[in-house]
Amino acid sequence: MAQTSSASTGDLTTEILQALSQKDPINSTEAFPQIPFEFIKAALDRLASRSMVKYEQIEREEAFLEPEAEIIVSHGSHEARVFDAVHKALEGLSIQDLEKEIGDKTVTKLGQGKAFKEKWIKKDGSKLVALVDSINDVTRDQLRVIKETKTHDAKIIADLKKRKLLKLQKVISFTIHKAEKFALEMVKEETDLTAEMLASGAWKEATFKPYNFKALGADQHAGALHPLNKVRSEFRQIFFEMGFTEMPTNQFVESGFWNFDTLFVPQQHPARDLQDTFYVSDPPKAGRPTATGPDDKADYEEYFKNVQQVHQDGKYDSIGYRYPWAEDESLRLVLRTHTTSVSAAMLHKLAQQKDENGRVPPARYFSIDRVFRNETVDATHLCEFHQVEGVIADYGLTLGGLMEFMDMFFGAMGVTDLRYKPAYNPYTEPSMEIFSHHKGLNKLIEIGNSGIFRPEMLEAMGLPRDLRVFGFGLSLERPTMIKYGISNIRELLGHQVDLSFVQKNPAVRFDK
């Protein structure tokens, strides 16, 4: 009782020092058996921080008896009780009489089976009779040993645990030693240097508590960047280091002209169906494309007609799709399905620029923003997601150069061993899908799409025939899932997001 009260009054540190002065080392369980673990740990940390003691933590499993096992220790095992009852009846016992004698049907049922197995009893007609004169109650003896020592042979422990007679618990104790500043009393340590101490000179004799620079400190409840924003920041840094310029993407609603027609997507393409696209009903349609400012001198009317001719009749050595192109369909408003619509507008503006030699200069553009598709939601798809878009316009570009750039770009974020698959895009030829292995899903998943823009699409904008343009796009969510080991995209966005995941995950570093 004295030990329990001392723990509650804060005198446990003194008791530890007193015990250690008489014996070094000591075991906390032996020296202070009644004091809870948390009190012992707090006192030891307080002494260890002053270099008065040092300690090692010992973890072990101990066996504790279940209530049924306590009954066995007191009255004998079920099988022994059955044997004793049968042995006392010289002419044997019926099962009904055995139940009355023991007074517990469960003990009778379990004990019979074990007694039969041990060949202590047998059935003779309608009665049970003893086969031996005496027995050794092994189960009771084993449980007595476990009750005293909290342990036994591993095979015996496993067998008794299977019979639900005991349970295993982790027990933590400490081996405590004297340290270099061991003393029987704790020296009071000052935490602040006060004006009074300076005036009186008491600071010369005072012992100051050292600063703990490893302490975590109080939680400041600060805000945290979402993992998507962390990965987005790294993407932007990679693009800037590679000489890209960020495109303006602050327009979620686009006309079908910019979202589809400029990209050579025919008006009968499945991607333009309601099953794949979200259309805006109010207002019902947009106006024709016009200049975006006083400095925009491009001829948008000519561009509009060029796009119509490329689709309907063919132009620039292309035979086109040869269908009646509808202006109303082109001007329908849609939640943009990709940021490539912004890339098309930027390339159209690029065609108006000329360098000192009268040529359109090379350019690199990128954007990272939201797009919307009428998708079925599953582990890797959402109706709303972020697209990372890149465009490279230059002379003499080849498909091999595009693959090399993709290896460099994804390699900068730590995603290697890419796989390429031929694909079809209306606005690029050739086209490639890009795959990477996801360890969490244990399969290859598509992380991007790429290709070289079709020449008729570029020439309709006014770009020269010898200019080539790489285009590539990937989602922001899937690389984030790979980097953070997320198997279900709904754990990243939506109502299933764990806020502690947002708060505690470190900033991603692709080069680490």
From TrEMBL:
Give a yes or no for keyword Transferase in this entry. no
This enzyme's EC code(s): 6.1.1.20
Where it sits in the cell: the answer is: Cytoplasm
PANTHER family in UniProt: PHENYLALANINE--TRNA LIGASE ALPHA SUBUNIT, PHENYLALANYL-TRNA SYNTHETASE
Instruction: Name a Pfam family for this protein.
Output: PheRS_DBD3
Query: Aminoacyl-transfer RNA synthetases class-II family profile domain: which residues?
Result: 229-506
Query: Per the UniProt entry, what species is this protein from, by scientific name?
Result: Podospora pseudopauciseta
List the InterPro entries hit by this protein, alphabetically. Answer: aa-tRNA-synth_II, aa-tRNA-synth_II/BPL/LPL, Phe-tRNA-synth_IIc_asu, Phenylalanyl-tRNA_Synthase, PheRS_DBD3
Q: Which GO terms describe its molecular function?
A: phenylalanine-tRNA ligase activity
Task: For this UniProt record, give its keywords in alphabetical order, as a comma-separated list.
Answer: Aminoacyl-tRNA synthetase, ATP-binding, Cytoplasm, Ligase, Magnesium, Metal-binding, Nucleotide-binding, Protein biosynthesis
What class does this enzyme belong to in the EC scheme? ligase
Q: Which domain of life is it from?
A: Eukaryota
Keyword check for ATP-binding, yes or no.
Answer: yes
Q: What is its main location?
A: cytoplasm
Which protein, by its recorded name, is this? phenylalanine--tRNA ligase
Gene this chain is encoded by: FRS2
**What does the record list as coiled-coil region(s)?**
none
* Family, as annotated: Belongs to the class-II aminoacyl-tRNA synthetase family. Phe-tRNA synthetase alpha subunit type 2 subfamily.
- PROSITE patterns (UniProt xref): AA_TRNA_LIGASE_II (PS50862)
